[in-house]
Amino acid sequence: MYEQHFQSAQELLDYLSPLHTDRWPRGQYVFRGQPCSSFGLVPSTLRNSGRMVLSNVIGTKSEGGEMLQIFYEVQLLRAFLRACDVSGISVPGDSPQVRTEISAPTWEIFDIKKGETWPPSLIYPVLAAAQHHGVPTCLLDWSKRSFVAAYFAASAALQDLPSSKELAVWVLDISQWWSWYGDTGISFLEMPGATSTNLAAQSGVFTVSTRKIHTRDELEPTSLEKLLEEPESESEKPLISKLTLPLHEAPNVLSFCAEFGIMGSTMFPGYEGVAREIRDNAFAGTLEKSLWLYN
Question: Is-above-0.85 flag for pTM?
Answer without folding.
Answer: yes
